[in-house]
Recover the amino acids of this structure.
């Protein structure tokens, strides 16, 4: 599985559906059959099959292996990347700006009075995209799948997070930290007013 993959605007639009997002979320962690996905999401296999075929045609999921079960052959599916980024083009830029502008609007509703513009949205997208480069081993996901029968999903996510941190070289870690710091500084630079939320660390000290 690739850390990230560029897809065209038509494929990107498919992820606007909540069911398809849930399917991708599951298939990032492990390979599953249509029946197994249906059980996880509590939908009929027929409905899941309809979504899977759209995702497969768009290059968002792929068949990793097939197994015979009686007279039937079951296909196992997996997401083709951890993160999908819409490919560069006028529709891509417009879509990403809309998404990031919505994020900025959400921050404002929380009390963070941030500036909002196409230029700011593009800068945030650029910083986020660059940070995707600095991740741990590409083989990590395959190793994590082997633990799926021993641990629940949230535990596996934490294991992956810690393993990802330890798999990176010191240089990769420092570069990612530098990008996170640059992102924080940029957000603070566009924020004119912040709500007085008490952090857990502050609460602990008091």
């Amino acid at each position: 599985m690739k850390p990230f993959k560029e897809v065209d605007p038509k494929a990107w639009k498919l992820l606007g559906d909540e069911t398809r997002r849930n399917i991708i979320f599951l298939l990032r962690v492990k390979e599953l059959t249509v029946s197994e996905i249906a059980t996880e999401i509590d939908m009929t296999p027929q409905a899941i099959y309809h979504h899977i075929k759209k995702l497969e045609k768009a290059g968002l999921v792929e068949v990793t292996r097939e197994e015979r079960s009686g007279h039937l052959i079951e296909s196992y599916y997996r997401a083709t990347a951890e993160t999908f980024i819409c490919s560069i083009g006028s529709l891509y830029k417009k879509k990403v700006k809309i998404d990031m502008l919505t994020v900025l609007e959400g921050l404002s509703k929380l009390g963070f009075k941030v500036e909002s513009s196409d230029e700011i949205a593009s800068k945030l997208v650029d910083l986020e995209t660059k940070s995707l480069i600095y991740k741990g081993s590409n083989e990590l996901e395959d190793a994590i799948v082997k633990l799926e029968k021993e641990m629940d999903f949230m535990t596996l996510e934490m294991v992956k997070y810690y393993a990802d941190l330890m798999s990176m070289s010191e240089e990769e870690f420092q570069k990612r930290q530098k990008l996170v710091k640059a992102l924080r500084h940029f957000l603070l630079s566009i924020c004119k007013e912040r709500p007085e939320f008490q952090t857990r660390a502050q609460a602990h000290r008091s």
Notes: Residues 88-97 have pLDDT under 50 and may be disordered. Residues 88-194 form one domain. The chain has two domains: 2-83, 88-194. The first strand starts at residue 2 and ends at 7.
